[in-house]
Amino acid sequence: MKYVSHNPATGKEIQHWETHTDAEAEQALARAHALYQSDWCKGDRAPRLALLRQIADVLDASVEPMARAATEEMGKLIEASRGEVKFCADIARYYADNAERFLAPVSYPTDLGEAWVEHHPIGVIMAVEPWNFPYYQLMRVLAPNLAVGNPVLCKHAQIVPRCATLFAEAVSKAGAPEGVWTNLFITSDQVADLLADKRIQGAALTGSERAGSAVAGQAASHLKKTTLELGGNDVFVVLDDADIADTARQAAQARLSNCGQVCTGAKRFLVQESVMDSFMQHFTAAMQQAKPGDPLDSSTTLGPLSSADALKGLTRQVDDAVANGARLVIGGKPLGGEGYFYPPTILTDIAEDNPARYEEFFGPVAQVYSVKDDEAIVALANDSNYGLGGAIFTRNTDRARRLASRIETGMVYINSATNTAAELPFGGVKRSGYGRELSDLGIKEFTNQKLIVISK
């Protein structure tokens, strides 16, 4: 098996890498475990936090080459790729600045005497990461675990080996000791073997339900902790008092960002009946304004899907949705020509027995539902296998607060699309996974929260 880098805008191969052997994977694990056992991981945090700042500096100096690589390898618009690299630097600095506070001992009042909890590293972490944010997903794992003292082995997605290589090179260039972060081009079977090894103490995965189930199952069989960030079918709620023109514009942006290939992207648009016609008029116009083209061209506003398989799968999903009664408003067929381009697409009239109602569409396809009132909004929002993010648009924030508290999801944004920030926890419920990344919550997922008590 090879890790192959294709340009999704042209379909042409850029470069390929051979899979690492079992012996190479073992060597990587041995180096990482040796580093974990050293004072560098278990001692003073200052050198590790200094390294995070150095990594941030390297990323800042590498924005253009790394951004271009991401755009050429998975189709992200070039300005978005630049923003992703810069955001990775922000995350590194965030943990460098805040880790001491997050990991400080916490006192617990007790009649038994003096008690406190300390936060210690637990060992080597296995990361399995996706292609849609080829640097950000890696930094979400690296930064907190580096601060804690957990070395990381990473299996990146097979279609972004160039990005995986550049990220590892940036960490090394910053002066990281061998074993801090190791990029492995390995198979799923090799991941399973690593998870069975007692030197691996946890696994973090972002990806599909199938991959999450496999990794979580293997880890659980060996009593290893996991965090999972899986799919999403996020709602974008439009209440009857929203600014419809502006909301529709933001709705189109939320659906088309990264060509719709975002776990927290708005996918189900729940619109109150009284403003449905107006919303559809503005939303359809906004979606149709997208300009497909070369993602390296700054005038392009819609890049390609990530791969030929992604294009084939999305086409099948839309065809099946229509075959089961959904109405196709715009789009619905690949654009043709070279590359993996799919147009902005809107589906309505999706009945309860239509399989599309419960699927995640990873591409520029919007499902629009007309809803009567707040009760109907909550019922439809929660009628999902997923629970990752969501958004509510209204001028009445008190009403939005009440709705947000009732929607079964890990995150809700009011009057903006679902977003992310280093200081905010990221994660979901149901089949969207469990655990949190980023913020103070993310840094404690793979720590030994050790209780110490001095008796009276």
Protein described:
By secondary structure, the protein is of the alpha/beta class. The protein is 41% helix and 21% strand. It has 15 helices and 20 strands. The protein has helices spanning 22-36, 39-42, 46-61, 63-74, 78-102, 136-148, 161-173, 188-196, 209-221, 244-256, 276-288, 308-323, 374-382, 397-406, 439-443, and strands at residues 2-7, 12-18, 106-107, 113-121, 124-128, 152-155, 181-184, 200-206, 225-229, 234-238, 266-272, 327-330, 345-348, 365-371, 386-387, 390-393, 413-414, 429-430, 433-434, 447-455. The strands form 5 sheets. The protein has a 7-stranded mixed sheet with strand order 12-13-14-11-10-16-17, sandwiched between helices. A 6-stranded mixed sheet has the order 7-6-5-8-9-19, sandwiched between helices. Strands 3-4-20 form a 3-stranded antiparallel sheet, with no helix packed on it. Helix 7 links the parallel strand 6 and strand 7. Helix 4 crosses helix 5 (78-102) and helix 4 packs antiparallel against helix 7. It starts with a strand and ends with a strand. The mean pLDDT is 98.
Task: Tell me briefly what this model is.
This protein is an alpha/beta fold and 456 residues long. Helices cover 41% and strands 21% of the residues.
Notable features of this structure?
456 residues; alpha/beta; 20 strands
Mean pLDDT: 98
Strand content: 15-25%
Task: Give the beta-strand count.
Answer: 20
Strand line-up of the largest beta sheet: 12-13-14-11-10-16-17
